[in-house]
Design goal:
The chain has 92 residues and is α+β, with helices and mostly antiparallel strands. The protein is built from three helices and five strands, in the order ααβββββα. Helices cover 32% and strands 27% of the residues.
Length: 92
Amino acid sequence: MITPRQLADIARMVVAEGLAPAILTSLRRIYPGVYFTSCLDDDIIGTEPVLRRMGLNLYLVDSRQHCLQLTEDFQIATGVVLAAVTEECVES
């Protein structure tokens, strides 16, 4: 489970420090057992982000069935996708 407060804290950290490999390492250390990955937002199709910030969209991941899928349910979330929003993503 990931709480809305945790997701907001994660977003705040990423916006402050930037979406780089080092932030993923830090987040994994702070939130052990939570899956973190990053991508460009235009790589994600068919779902809306759970949280939007300037230059960043956050999606929740459910890995309970041994196959990762996006979810909007905080109760079953096991991970977070940090998706960078570029100008190209916004224009598309």
